[in-house]
Amino acid sequence: MRMFGGGSSIGLLPVAYINDATGGYNTALYIFSGLVGITFVISLVMKQNIRSFERQSIQAN
Q1: How many C-beta atoms lie closer than 10 Å to residue 15's C-beta?
Q2: Could you state, in chain order, the average pLDDT of each consecutive group of 10 residues for the chain (61 residues)?
Q3: CA dist 14 to 7, 11, 36, Å?
Q4: Which of 27, 34, 41, 59 has an alpha carbon 20 to 30 Å from 52's alpha carbon atom?
Q5: Residue 42 and residue 24: Cα distance in Å, rounded?
Q6: Would you call 57 helix, strand, or coil by DSSP?
Q7: Rounded CA separation 25/21 (Å)
């Protein structure tokens, strides 16, 4: 019996499925590149919100 960790179920198995379905890795790489871009934008928005909350708490004191 073979056990898979969290990383392989998040990354390797979907990539293998996409490779089988499309015959190549290009689609999987485009999907993961898009996800990295989305997480980058989310992190920038979160950073901006944190700074805004910090400014509000400083002004409230």
Answers
A1: 17
A2: 61 87 93 93 96 88 69
A3: 11, 6, 16
A4: 34
A5: 29
A6: helix
A7: 10
